[in-house]
């Protein structure tokens, strides 16, 4: 996997974690759910990239 894509996915996951934590802290369920969704999406993208790398190599 390219280092750039990995860093981008990690940044999105971190951003999602911050949103989730903030949502919990202020009692905003929508923000919390959005943060969890961003983390899930980033993890899925990272998995796809890893799989592509294994198929190529």
The number of strands is: 0
- Average pLDDT level: 92
β-strand amount: under 5%
Shape: elongated
Order of helices and strands: HH
Let me know the largest β-sheet: none
Number of helices: 2
Distance between the termini: 10 Å
Low-confidence stretches: none
Helical proportion? over 70%
For the CA atoms, what is the radius of gyration?
A: 13 Å
Structural class: mainly alpha
What does this 3D model show about the protein?
There is one protein chain. With 57 residues, this protein is mainly α. The chain has two helices and no strands. It has helices at residues 3-26, 29-56. α1 (3-26) runs antiparallel to α2 (29-56). The radius of gyration is 13 Å and the shape is elongated. The protein starts with a helix and ends with a helix. The model has no long low-confidence stretch (mean pLDDT 92).
State the gist of this model:
The protein has 57 residues and is mainly alpha-helical. It is built from two helices and no strands. It is elongated and about 45 Å long.
What characteristics describe this protein?
elongated, mainly alpha, 57 residues
Secondary-structure map:
Blueprint: H1 3-26, H2 29-56
Helix pairs in contact: 1-2
């Amino acid at each position: 996997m390219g280092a750039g894509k990995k860093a981008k996915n990690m940044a999105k996951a971190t951003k999602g974690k911050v949103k989730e934590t903030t949502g919990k802290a202020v009692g905003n369920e929508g923000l919390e759910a959005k943060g969890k969704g961003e983390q899930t999406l980033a993890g899925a993208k990272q998995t796809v990239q890893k799989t592509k790398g294994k198929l190529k190599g």
